[in-house]
Design brief:
2 copies of one chain form a homodimer. With 233 residues, chain A is mainly α. Chain A has 2 domains: 68 residues, Arc Repressor Mutant, subunit A, CATH 1.10.10.10; 140 residues, GntR ligand-binding domain-like (Four Helix Bundle (Hemerythrin (Met), subunit A), Up-down Bundle). Helix content of chain A is 69%, strand content 4%. Chain A is built from 11 helices and 3 strands, in the order H-E-H-H-E-E-H-H-H-H-H-H-H-H. In chain A, strand 2 and strand 3 form a beta hairpin. In chain A, helix 5 packs parallel to helix 10 and helix 6 packs antiparallel against helix 7. The two termini of chain A are 29 Å apart. The structure holds a DNA duplex (30 and 30 nucleotides).
DNA sequence: GTGACATAAACGTCGTACTTTTTGTTCCCC
DNA sequence: GGGGAACAAAAAGTACGACGTTTATGTCAC
């Protein structure tokens, strides 16, 4: 775990957050700060700080006399990277992975189109480099090295779009991609068609062809969705 | 303000959050908990809780011996509804509004396509009702009533997509739409073409025509972007 | 000049005492 | 007997003071 003891409250958070998002404390259930303090052997101050954070994620609601109640799932801040990480580590990982992939399929094509218009020469170069890296590692069981390039590629596209909302999804995409490689059994080398598409996207962006970049990225997204359909029923 | 004194720490947050997002404390600047406690006349405990929340939003970073330093803008959790609200209330509202509208233009068409496939009969009914409501309030300076229907319409589409990530963007869209109506001077009645498009989207969703629903919603998005280009240079 | 050590500044943690709010209960009056 | 008002208890909120811990920084010796 990334539990580097960056403070007691952070450790507590790393216990409570996953537990709540995993449904261990179902919505509506109540926690009491005293009880938590005792159970985790920390002061109430520490518990309160952790609860404040969970509250800011809309995972729980703290009301006087009542306690800390877990909020219904629909109200959670599911865009919070921390929450995403917790949920991806938990039980309904497949569902989560699907949600995020659908989001990707909506966002990345548009981002690629914008990138074709606004990418700097440096970003174009980086993109081409990453695409070449993907080609170079696409055969011979080098999935880890491939993944690094894949993540970097998508991150550059999102950032090059010039839209900060898109850029911030880089982490999400990284989680999805690495999750896919790490968790789902991928014995085989990546789909050659996908690799080619990445190269072509880099090309389109470099040439400033927004329409083509968008269309190609949409094809990549469709592929990712189909792959998900095959691997997770 | 929605400053209902739900606790001292929340009040402090409502002071610090907007100040930071507005750039009043530029990235890199440091705050000290002692100093804040003194300045706002609260205990350090309260300050620390507020700081914890800001930290979870990645707005600040608290390090020993250094203090609480404001993080660079690119690291902020810009999907946090609270952060969005603060930034929309602040100075760079136009930039923010554009970012969010671009996000909408990417997400909503895909959401509409999914809604056409998965919307329940109740959701179809609600959608049609809202579209009709928009028509009914589209003339004669009833912008407020129109806005209510508009927001509800988009919210239903996002929820009907069946994707929780999309569903959670309902609040964001609501902020964007109400912000547009409230802030930018809209003397005139809404664009009749847009109203018609909404009616047609409701139609397409009801008939399960995903491709048409997506295409029509994309037209709405393009319109929103163009409108933004005209009103904000 | 470099490295080890001392120092102090800031946050981190804790225990305790007090306050506020909500809720449930009891008791009195109608 | 029923309803309403006052009261009691429970749980979180707030405050404070003391001590612990980390770490940037400066100093001193080599």
């Amino acid at each position: 775990m990334t539990n580097q003891a960056r403070g007691l409250h952070a450790q507590l958070l790393e216990s409570l957050g996953p537990a709540i998002t995993a449904g261990e404390y179902p919505p509506g259930s109540v926690l009491r700060t005293d009880e938590l303090a005792q159970r985790f052997d920390v002061s109430r101050t520490v518990v309160r700080e952790a609860v404040r954070v969970l509250e800011s994620m809309h995972l729980v609601e703290s009301r006087r006399r009542v306690g800390v109640t877990v909020r219904p799932t629909e109200e959670w801040n599911v865009y919070d990277p921390q929450v995403i990480r917790w949920r991806l580590a938990g039980a309904d990982r497949p569902r989560q992975l699907r949600s995020l992939t659908v989001l990707r399929s909506a966002v990345e094509p548009v981002a690629a189109g914008l990138a074709a218009q606004f990418a700097t020469p440096e970003q174009c170069a980086e993109l081409t480099g990453r695409a070449l890296g993907m080609v170079a590692t696409s055969r011979g069981r080098q999935l880890d090295a491939y993944l690094v390039h894949d993540i970097a590629f998508h991150r550059v596209v999102l950032r090059a779009s010039g839209n900060e909302m898109f850029a911030r999804l880089g982490d999400v995409v990284a989680e999805v991609l690495s999750g896919r490689t790490r968790h789902q059994v991928m014995f085989e080398d990546p789909d050659p068609a996908a690799v080619t598409l990445h190269v072509q996207v880099a090309e389109a962006v470099r040439e400033g062809d927004a329409v083509r970049a968008e269309r190609l990225t949409r094809e990549i997204a469709v592929g990712a969705l189909q792959e998900l359909d095959v691997l997770a029923p």
